[in-house]
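User: Can you write out an input/output pair for a complex, sequences first and structure second?

Assistant: Here is one pair. Inputs:
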Amino acid sequence: MLRKITVIAVLLISIAMMYACSKNEDELTPEEKKITFSVPANFPAPAYNFEDNKLTNAGFALGKKLFYEARLSADKSVSCGSCHQQFAAFTQLDHKVSHGVNNCQGKRNTPPLFNLAWQKAFFWDGGVKNIETSPLNAITDACEMGTDIQTIVAFLKNTAPYPDLFKQAFGSTEINSQLILKSITQFTAVLVSGNSKYDKVMRKESGTSFTPTEQAGYNLFKEKCTGCHAEPFFTDFSYRSNGLDLVSSDEGRSHITGLASDFGKFRVPTLRNIEYTSPYMHDGRFYSLDEVIEHYNSGVKASANLDAQLKNGIPLSSTEKEQIKAFLKTLTDNEFIKNTLYSES
Amino acid sequence: MKLSQYLLALVCPIIILSSCKKSNDEVTPDSKSTFSIEFENQVNGSPLVLNTTTYKNAKGEDFKINVFKYYVSNIKLSKADGTTYLIPESYFLIDASKAESTNITLKNVPTGDYTKIEYTIGVDYARNFAGAQTGALDPINGMFWTWNSGYIFVKLEGTSPQSAATGNMLTFHIGGVTDPNNTIRTFATDINTANPLRVRTDGKPNMHFIVNAAALFTGKTDISFATLNFTMGGANSVIVANNYANGLFRLDHIHN
């Protein structure tokens, strides 16, 4: 009798082991390196600091898996990573506006994702005020993931290996919206881009220096552009109208504040990695940096809330345009864009 | 996180110490107990029955209620001597469709006689912008705006023949914490000193509040559903919040 039980037990264990082997593809290979959140020397202190969301390798790995999990969307076709592609500095290349479930086209250009830990408001209109709750907007938007957090919680509870991954990350198989959002934040807040040529020049690293053209572009930039695109983030995080249209078809910031003085205003976007984040503007109307620079040179319209600094546009000679463009390309951070730590594995 | 740990470390020995010298009918310093609050949802004195019963607003217009949910938070108790106690992490979502949500329990409250209670109708400013929350504040409860982040403090949905919206819908989602459309309101009521809220180690009193859903539509501004049947934050939500600030809650009685 005892023998029989032993045989059955051995059999069961081997079946379980075989099952475990077959599940290997679902398991996460833990990152070998300890995941850290590092503040570049030329950056100020961040707004988000992981005090209430302890950063761990398991938490980061789970957050990354969720970020690239298309089954979270209504038709299981769209993940966060679909519209936030690493090779485009986590925006979506060649898409004027976000392209969500059921081929729905959203109304605004996907913002790139990096240095979010320094940001206090999110999206083009600043409607979301905490990085942790930012994914909820994309999750629920009918033209993005078209679902709700309740459905996602239920899906993850019933889908291996998620309960195990939550246990590794948070010590319990409990899955709730808070833990989902905190783990995604362990991924998104760690996305720091601060190793561009510009950064290395600023930090005087290993003798890196601008070329004469880049330096001329930087001088022009400081003279004409930093009023909005302030260093080191190349945005002052304010909301402004840059005169794209006489009357904006998108109300912008006023959708959030209800103030007429905010009509047609959008958050000043960062210029970091701009070489890779085409198309540009809240509606993705410009495909090239040349078009963007030409807008400021000759295309600014007298919109109702036009930023005072743009009243006369930013007149630039053709040499100056090339110099500014050369400088903008020093904001490209290839180490960030090619860092396999952030890639879908 | 750190602060709460220190607090816990501080409170634990106090509880242990105080439980040693607990006597039955005296209020011992530092002892703690429990009380509960029942929220009885009504409409102008009649019981609130979702989906079926027809009510009248102050303008005499018929309406039905399908959804009625609201937050009560930051519950603060005062004693006659003016000392106050803010119940930490007191966030509650009352949902007329969930009977168990209408009776809330407050634990670890210092014993004593309380003569005033106040609380936020909604969620305080800071928590609207804090990170991912759980429990009553979990966005899963359908009381969180994702596109303009912040909580819906009071949600009433229903129908009225006077509403010109699709399906004669009434949609009142009240929230928003920034001026000029701040809808955070505080409710406060004195408790009869002859029958105060007596929190005792051997007594767990129950406070009974009447909640009048129709208070959204009357008070400072009587609302006609012909002109206002939809609001999700903004100036119209302020009109509704100014109405319910005074009329939504009424302390009916206390079982000590």
